[in-house]
Amino acid sequence: MITIVVGTNRKNSRTREVAQYYQNLLRQEKVESQILDLSELPDDFTTSALYENTGKNPVFNALRTTVERADQYVFIVPEYNGSFPGVLKAFLDGLSYPSKLMHKQAALVGLSDGIQGGALALSHLNDIFSYLGLNVLAQRVKIPLMKKNFQDGKVTDDFINQLLREQAGLLARSRLFV
Ligand SMILES: Cc1cc2nc3c(=O)[nH]c(=O)nc-3n(C[C@H](O)[C@H](O)[C@H](O)COP(=O)(O)O)c2cc1C
After folding, report:
1. How far apart (Å, rounded) are the C-alpha atoms in residues 140 and 53?
2. Domain range for residue 38?
3. Which one of 77, 104, 150, 151 is at 20 to 30 Å from 12 when CA atoms are compared?
4. Is the CB of 124 under 6 A from ligand 1?
């Protein structure tokens, strides 16, 4: 199962809308997926589910199990202050060690209101995934200027759409090998 991770816990985020759009692209590739939205994380998870509290928060445990059982991921990542959201790093810090993400596969999509499209955010995240042994597809897609390029739940720019379709296709065709 491909798990699409909404990389922020902001309620009603644009990132969530992009995740739904991506899920449709995967459907067109005849691949089922599930969305894991970090807004489902318990508000107190950094004090109730990490470190000495590992395993003690059932809601967090369920989200962790969902992520760790998947074999392919799409991380939809908004740019927050020139990087990826801190809540995503806190979530990754709460996953099992040694990492159950090792030798699995991920596609990355960055979003921003500015012109970077989360380029730096994706690079920062890529460093962490490289450390964890999670294989990231070389084709990382960036959606800059979100207010112009993403309207009414759809990517409006043809070239970005083409890149997204190519990436979703690569992920779908890799399914046999992960
Ligand atoms: C806390 C915070 C920090 C942000 N920092 C940046 C930034 O550094 N550069 C940028 O272009 N957009 C920034 N944005 C805008 C988001 O990247 C943008 O709205 C994105 O399309 C979707 O964010 P959302 O999922 O929170 O709706 C920021 C938004 C928030 C909430």
Report:
1. 35
2. 2-177
3. 104
4. no
Q: What is the full per-residue pLDDT of the chain (178 aa) written as tens digits?
A: 899 999 999 999 999 999 999 999 999 999 999 999 999 999 999 999 999 999 999 999 999 999 999 999 999 999 999 999 999 999 999 999 999 999 999 999 999 999 999 999 999 999 999 999 999 999 999 999 999 999 999 999 999 999 999 999 999 998 766 6
Task: Name the residue with the closest Cα to ligand 1, atom 3.
Answer: 80
Alpha carbon distances (Å) from 62 to 13, 39, 49, 66, 98: 22, 14, 11, 6, 18
Q: Is 80 in the pocket of ligand 1 (CB under 6 A)?
A: yes
Which pTM value belongs to this model?
0.98
Q: What is the DSSP string of 122-133?
A: HHHHHHHHHHHT
Please tell me the residue having the least CA distance from ligand 1 atom 5.
Answer: 80
Q: How far is the CA of 80 from the centre of ligand 1 (A)?
A: 5
Q: Decide whether any atom of ligand 1 lies within 6 Å of the 146 Cβ.
A: yes
How many domains does the chain contain in total?
1
Ligand 1 pocket residue status of 153, Cβ below 6 Å: no
Cα 145 from Cα 89, distance rounded (Å)? 24
Closest ligand 1 atom number to CA of residue 14 = 27
